[in-house]
């Protein structure tokens, strides 16, 4: 009869260890040491800290205001070349506006041509003027 090996039942034994498959007749591979796992974990934490420090966030720029949409239609122009008036309509009213005047508190009539008018935007001097042709 064989003696019972009580030393084999202790924690960390190579004979009875975690991961041992009782249905295979081979010795299990030794489990990785706790020290190497702790070192790998601390290295991963340190790398994450370095990424946080080196990651520079761009300040969020507030959205730039945009000019209002043009809600009028150019119907045409009349008058002499020196005193020309542009005729606009918003569907409810008709506006006769000279060059350089403000239309509906939103638009500036920059230039009046024979078949088109250029509209700028009140409060947006850097925005380019938009050309409206007759009917548009």
Question: What descriptors fit this protein?
Answer:
single chain; 136 residues; alpha+beta; SH3 type barrels; 2 domains; four-stranded antiparallel β-sheet; three-stranded antiparallel β-sheet; 7 strands; 15% helix; rod-shaped
- Large-scale geometry: rod-shaped
- State Rg: 41 Å
Discrete helix count: 1
Number of domains: 2
User: Ends: how far apart?
Assistant: 107 Å
Oligomer: single chain
Mean pLDDT: 81
Largest sheet: 4 strands, antiparallel
CATH fold-level topology of the largest domain: SH3 type barrels
Helix content: 10-25%
Counted beta strands:
7
What is the CATH top level name of the largest domain? Mainly Beta
